[in-house]
Amino acid sequence: MPLPRQVFIAVIGAGGVGKAFLAQLSHLASNLSRSPGAPTYLSLILLSTSKKSVYHSDYKSLSNWEAELQNSTTPPLPLPQLADYLVKAPGKVVLVDNTSNQDVADSYPPFLKKGISIVTPNKKAFSSTYQLWTDIFSGAANGTGTGGYVFHESSVGAGLPVISTLKDLVETGDDVRKIEGVFSGTMSFLFNSFQPVSGGGGKFSAEVKTAKEKGFTEPDPRDDLNGLDVARKLTILARLVGLKIESPTSFPVQSLIPKELESCSSGDEFLSRLPEFDNEMEELKADAEKEGKVVRFVGSVDVPKGEVKVGLEKFDKSHPIAALKGSDNIIAFYTKRYGDNPLIIQGAGAGGEVTAMGVTSDLIKVVRLLQ
Amino acid sequence: MPLPRQVFIAVIGAGGVGKAFLAQLSHLASNLSRSPGAPTYLSLILLSTSKKSVYHSDYKSLSNWEAELQNSTTPPLPLPQLADYLVKAPGKVVLVDNTSNQDVADSYPPFLKKGISIVTPNKKAFSSTYQLWTDIFSGAANGTGTGGYVFHESSVGAGLPVISTLKDLVETGDDVRKIEGVFSGTMSFLFNSFQPVSGGGGKFSAEVKTAKEKGFTEPDPRDDLNGLDVARKLTILARLVGLKIESPTSFPVQSLIPKELESCSSGDEFLSRLPEFDNEMEELKADAEKEGKVVRFVGSVDVPKGEVKVGLEKFDKSHPIAALKGSDNIIAFYTKRYGDNPLIIQGAGAGGEVTAMGVTSDLIKVVRLLQ
Fold this sequence. Notes:
The structure is a homodimer.
Chain A: E1 6-12, H1 16-33, E2 41-48, E3 53-55, H2 65-71, H3 79-87, E4 92-97, H4 102-106, H5 108-113, E5 117-119, H6 124-127, H7 130-139, E6 150-151, H8 162-171, E7 176-182, H9 185-194, H10 204-213, H11 222-225, H12 228-240, H13 267-273, H14 278-290, E8 293-302, E9 307-316, E10 328-335, E11 343-348, H15 352-369
Parallel strand pairs in A: 1-2, 1-4, 4-5, 5-6
Antiparallel strand pairs in A: 2-3, 7-8, 7-10, 8-9, 10-11
Helix pairs in contact in A: 1-15, 9-10
Binding site for L-homoserine (chains A, B): 218
Pfam family, one (chains A, B): NAD_binding_3
Cofactor (chains A, B): a metal cation
């Protein structure tokens, strides 16, 4: 593609996703600079964590970000100053937000209005108040504004092409009727192990423990079991099909944290008491089994009814949602064009590498649009 | 998005895909013209079939293409004159090729070099000689050239996001190891009915007849059964991951036309004699059944080995390829990042509406890039 000579990149966050993204950025920058038609130079001009940051007042590229960050004693720039710094860069700027920070998300509207583009897996920007959603897309060039571009493929299903596919369906005029799926790697693993299609499976509390040990849960598993992460993803998808969802708590979300354990003071206390509720879960399993079904934790959007919900549902053993493996996500789009057999996307929906992949492919799209 | 004020569209082909595309174009044009930020006007300036065409020397938009085409007595423009006409349009031009014509495909390189962009489901452009592939992408702005853009999502799996996903995997630096799937709606229907996972199923020749009656085959079913359509799709995917595949006949492709019937003079003669070979197909079915498997017609690319092949394979009944329904396609990408559980895309891979959807979403991408 005939690309711009230089695009400046600023990255916030250097955790699992951030590190994987920086590795992919380095691969991408090398490829784009060697593009025979019109080489493009991606310059990493800022890298910031919650504790420190590294950048140069003359916008010189960071040559060795790992060492520079490690040796840095510079605190992160407050967000307004960050915007000022980026807006004065001698070229187009893309801010890559690899955090899940609400404050950073809240600052997207002013960044976008200043012409700074944003790519991010940060769900909070798109699933908090409807006002924030409106403010973001009324400023963005790919909304109704004239500022920077904003892309967030990895905010649902990590690198799986969920958001781009839904946008394509809507923009080409298909009639999206229902979206249904398993949107959490943790919930996928838990229920695929708790009640495999082939029968058997462990006690629910034991599977939660295993998932935590395997690193499939947040440090405190309650952050997965409360359903909020899934509710945020459904909020994003529902808004993309045009529903005005006020917040991820404005529709029914089933929490898997028993009422009696809501007051536990720590994740460890919660885990130690969770076995008290295994009998309830075993009953659910047995009820489903009687109907030849299995229990799964799903989210769905019923578009004509304007209904969004998140919680446990029973599925026939031959249903693609029942047959899911490991910690995979699955997303089914039921539309007028696709008829009875939905368009299905399936695969790993969490993890640093695949989440970063969604961010990097968004960056490629923005760089091409900025030409 | 801040879009260009006007983009000129020329469409070749007004069959099933062409008609569905024109309906989607009208919906899209209406939406883009009402875009609050920067309205864009898509002007349909030419529509051509193999028999006649309609266009105006002053590039006036076709106001009512159906009536204008019906009343037209103008023959189609020869391709060089078509290029001359389009290149003199007072703005950027996108040629939408909704044919499966080799001559039109062969003319892409000069069109692209003249700055005309192309969107198309025409497999022949990307699956004929490797020289044509090289000529196309050495001229295109999204290849190594500086001409128009070329997008062809619907050349594999119709509107399913197969090509865009594969490009994202490759461009973000994932290591694609294997691509495997069912790439033909006809073959999907035939084998899902011939040997359902639940057992039973009809004789092969009877299923071919049913498929033809339901409109799931080409007018002459031999055009599906020879495997060439699937071979063309595999050629495209293999080239996208960097393999230099000379042509769709340069790797093993299993034809389901028995040797003895290759000389049949008509599709009808072929269909009437096909039952003579039902016993052979029943043996295949029984052999698979003995192993608890089913037979499916698949294509695969083994990237490290550089091997492409198309033909019958046996799959465990629990494999996603075995569980496919109706005439759906399924495509699995095995990559380093996705590990043992591939990224899977599944859904209708044929039909006017969904094929046109891929073309329309490509057009949206090009219009944005042309801004």
